[in-house]
Amino acid sequence: MSVRMMTWVLDEAPVNDSTQTLVLLCLADHANDDGLCWPSIAKVAARARCSESTARRSVRKLEEAGLIIREGISPGRATNLYRIIPRREPRQIDRVGDHFTAKTPGNSISPADMPFGAPVDAEPCQIDRVGPPTLAPVTTNPGVGDTPTLAPVTPEPSMNHHEPPAAAGGSAIAETTSRIGELETAVRAVGLGARFDRLSADDRTTIDGLIDLHGVQALAAHALTQHRPNDPARFANAWIEAWKALPVPGFQAAAAPRPACTDCDNGWIDADTPCPVCRSNLVGRIGGDQ
Asked: InterPro entries given for it (predicted)?
């Protein structure tokens, strides 16, 4: 849980819809101080007291508003990886006489919003510090000739209890996305138009493993054999079961068992006579010798 992100959601996030606010608050509760979080839709829906479809719709609205961005799939968890983007409502500036005031809650204002050199009538506002800690002057016995000493200001510790994604996770996600993109290109090349943008995290993991096993071209060719002109596949996950049924390269199926026979003992009628059913390959040879 990031106190900074939750405070921003409660005090400053430009969200008017109550359900979207709850969903954004759930994401902030799972986020670290960099805004990264990866809860499942089921968990978000349960904590926001809404259905999973409503939770997905709210997440999509927050993405469209630019308050969160999707950065791929969380390694090892098969859930989407989101980053919260804190921002405030745009402020309107009114000119009153020779002074400028800002239309914001509490009348807080930043000098960056004012024309250069204009006097500002605004109450001081608290500024969130992002970056390394600064040093504040501290004096033990203030007086003439005292030399101030500097003491580090320690930022408030984070209450985030989640492990951040592994450093190599980003490259693994990018590699999977690239390989599935190659498969989509190969499928388009053979004349099929199924969509790959609706694949779930589990489907992407499964297809990535099938690419390792069979290769892009083999999967595209097999998808073409499954094509039905009157009822074409709309989404790529329709081919997953057919791809799973492909024989493993290099694997040789076991030989068919010999037909059962009740006239012989393990292929021999007697010590010198092979069974014509079980050992037909020996009948002519042994018969010729006799």
From this structure: WH-like_DNA-bd_sf, WH_DNA-bd_sf
